[in-house]
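Design request, tokens follow.
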């Protein structure tokens, strides 16, 4: 929808008067909220760096020149309620933010808000808010599709908590011709108002990155060159920064060596034959064929490669921990190019990383670039890649050797699976557990079947799902069997603790079973260890589950420790437990090769074997030490 013209509206004689001091007090007190308001109303097409600076500039210029009348429009029901100073500066911010989104017209002087801000100025750095999640990205894209007045209506309704009547009054005072139409347009966007308070839209809490360092160096040398060199430099600087050329959202080029040029040539992309995996000695991403309906779209592939090499400031870039985000060293391998839901998606592989480029179908604005490290991935670790996320659902592209894809709820091990179907290796969408909030009532896993059997994978919010296994750390096996499903069921929700950590695989190992001292049954001790693609930073949880309990309880956790892993398959943990009769006990368990356990501190006790149970008091604090069969000491996991 086209942006609506914004024109100033004369004020009524009955409106309250605001002086400069009152408006300044309101602006200083509520500066972060006003800047957030301006940032959300400004068109995302400005780019995040200019959008941040413009939001600050517009807010700082919202003071009146003298005594001015303020519209009687209610503020949010907080300390700003009935404050005419706040209502005045808010109106000024909305009015100028709407003016900034108007297109420039020939034979007409631009308004001040339409030009880059004179103040504040930042040189040598690009500033942008901290990245949010997939929901914030989706909301930002939906708001970008609205007109300026509709975007302002949504923000006033959600951020300022104004009624529709108050929103119409603010928009009308800001010069919007048809405020009612703007409100009707916002009804097409889901009411995800809580996301407006996300760090994604906080233009006062910023991250900084350098500008194009190579280009700055070239400009410095160009000042000492001859007039011809200066003319060429001037022509480069004069190129419109917001326009879209054949390279889409890519920043200006600086790499001109042969390898870099080859990496940007869509004609040099590696394409694997569809049947190559059948005769290959290895099953990994290197034998995936190129799939999708746009593998011959040279323009799309060129944009994807150019953005990978030089992502512009409007491109949203994310990478799993420990994953480099630089350009490819040579021509990468094409895994997919096609339309997925409302986006065009390209997936590339350079031997170390998976790179996913996505752009809306109707434009190249709002492009995103995601990276995931996959070096050494084989078999089930290279069996699926996230193709797209939308409305809390995730869709996968599977390996060519996958015969069947299904959904399995890990919390219900006895239930069956739901077939997802496969169309050219693409699954139907399934609800992602990585984006669920609130109580954990289900944990959907992806079950893939190939010639070697079934494998379980879990989405943890990254490009490549994590492989789930069970058994002793030295010889884990697939979790898709009946025993593995029963092992994982009480502890599946604990996978939420390792979201977005670059997790490669998670193993669940029941290392001990302990009869409870009140003879009510036996408790299970399970250790889960999440290994990462980068090698470091594994996370270990020791969990305790009583008979009949639906979920396990975390008894101890640690990071960057060898415990519960292939190099050190030992673990010791304890918990203070209350029996049904109200008696408190210290329970501890070690792996089977634990010869003895000793408790120190607030509880003093010792036992032979790998189990310890001793009566104690509520809130007791104790230290645990164990001795292995070979005489080595082991400490409690912490």
């Amino acid at each position: 929808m086209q942006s609506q013209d914004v024109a100033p509206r004369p004020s009524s004689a009955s409106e309250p008067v605001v002086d400069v001091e009152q408006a300044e007090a309101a602006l200083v007190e509520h500066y972060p909220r006003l800047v957030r308001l301006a940032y959300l109303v400004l068109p995302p097409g400005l780019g995040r760096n200019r959008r941040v600076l413009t939001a600050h500039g517009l807010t700082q210029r919202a003071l009146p020149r003298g005594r001015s009348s303020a519209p009687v429009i209610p503020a949010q029901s907080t300390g700003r309620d009935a404050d005419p100073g706040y209502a005045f500066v808010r109106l000024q911010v909305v009015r100028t933010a709407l003016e900034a989104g108007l297109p420039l017209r020939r034979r007409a002087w631009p308004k001040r808000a339409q030009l880059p801000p004179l103040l504040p100025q930042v040189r040598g750095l690009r500033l942008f808010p901290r990245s949010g999640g997939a929901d914030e990205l989706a909301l930002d894209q939906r708001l970008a599709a609205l007109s300026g007045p509709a975007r302002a209506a949504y923000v006033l309704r959600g951020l300022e908590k104004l009624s529709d009547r108050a929103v119409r009054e603010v928009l009308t005072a800001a010069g919007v011709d048809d405020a009612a139409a703007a409100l009707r347009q916002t009804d097409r966007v889901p009411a995800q108002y809580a996301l407006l308070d996300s760090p994604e839209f906080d233009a006062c809490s910023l991250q900084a990155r350098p500008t194009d360092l190579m280009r700055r160096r070239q400009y410095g040398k160009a000042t000492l060159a001859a007039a011809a060199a200066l003319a060429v430099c001037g022509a480069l600087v004069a190129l419109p920064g917001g326009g879209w050329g054949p390279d889409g959202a890519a920043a200006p080029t600086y790499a001109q060596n042969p390898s870099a040029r080859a990496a940007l040539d869509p004609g040099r992309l590696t394409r694997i034959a569809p049947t190559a995996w059948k005769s290959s000695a290895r099953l990994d991403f290197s034998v995936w064929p190129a799939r999708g309906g746009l593998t011959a779209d040279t323009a799309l592939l060129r944009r994807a490669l150019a953005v990978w090499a030089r992502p512009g400031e409007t491109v949203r870039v994310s990478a799993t921990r420990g994953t480099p985000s630089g350009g490819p060293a040579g021509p990468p391998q094409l895994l997919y190019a096609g339309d997925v839901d409302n986006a065009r998606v390209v997936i590339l592989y350079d031997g170390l990383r998976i790179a996913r480029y996505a752009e809306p179908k109707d434009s190249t604005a709002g492009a995103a670039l995601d990276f995931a490290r996959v070096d050494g991935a084989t078999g089930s670790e290279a069996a699926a890649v996230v193709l797209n996320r939308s409305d809390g659902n995730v869709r996968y592209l599977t390996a060519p050797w996958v015969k069947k894809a299904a959904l399995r709820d890990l919390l219900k091990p006895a239930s069956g699976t739901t077939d997802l179907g496969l169309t050219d290796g693409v699954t139907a969408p399934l609800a992602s557990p990585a984006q669920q909030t609130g109580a954990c009532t289900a944990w959907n896993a992806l079950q893939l079947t190939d010639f070697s059997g079934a494998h379980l994978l879990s989405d943890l919010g990254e490009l490549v799902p994590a492989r789930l296994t069970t058994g002793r750390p030295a010889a884990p096996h697939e979790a898709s069997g009946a025993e593995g499903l029963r092992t994982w069921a009480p502890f599946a929700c604990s996978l939420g603790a390792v979201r977005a950590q670059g997790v490669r695989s998670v193993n669940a190992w029941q290392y001990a079973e302990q009869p409870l001292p009140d003879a009510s049954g036996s408790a299970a001790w399970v250790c889960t260890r999440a290994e990462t693609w980068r090698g470091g930073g594994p996370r270990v949880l020791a969990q305790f589950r009583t008979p009949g309990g639906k979920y396990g309880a975390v008894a101890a956790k640690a990071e960057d420790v060898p415990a519960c892993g292939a190099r050190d398959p030992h673990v010791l943990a304890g918990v203070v437990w209350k029996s049904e009769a109200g008696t408190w006990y210290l329970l501890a368990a070690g792996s089977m090769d634990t010869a003895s356990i000793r408790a120190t501190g607030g509880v003093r006790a010792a036992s032979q074997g790998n189990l310890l149970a001793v009566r104690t008091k509520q809130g007791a604090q104790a230290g645990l030490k164990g001795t292995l069969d070979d005489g080595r000491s082991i400490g409690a996991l912490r």
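Comment from the thread starter after seeing the answer: thanks! The two ends are 57 Å apart (CA to CA).
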